[in-house]
Write a structure and sequence with these properties.
Layout: H1 7-22, H2 28-62
Length: about 60
């Protein structure tokens, strides 16, 4: 999955999915799709955090 979505937007969407799940708002058909989307968003966020961490380490190592 290669999406052009900002980290903050991904976190916001994840929070929305969690709220909908906790409130029982999602029916069984939507629940599966929302869980898949949540997995994609989690991976995207993790990848962005890893990339940023690597960039920070590189900058600090140069100094």
């Amino acid at each position: 999955m290669k999406e052009d979505i900002k980290y903050e937007e991904a976190i916001g969407e994840l929070e929305q999915i969690v709220r909908r799940m906790e409130s029982g708002e999602l029916d069984v058909d939507l629940l599966g799709n929302q869980l898949k989307r949540a997995q994609q968003l989690i991976k995207l966020c993790k990848d962005k955090l890893t990339k940023t961490n690597d960039e920070i380490k590189k900058i600090l190592a140069e100094n």
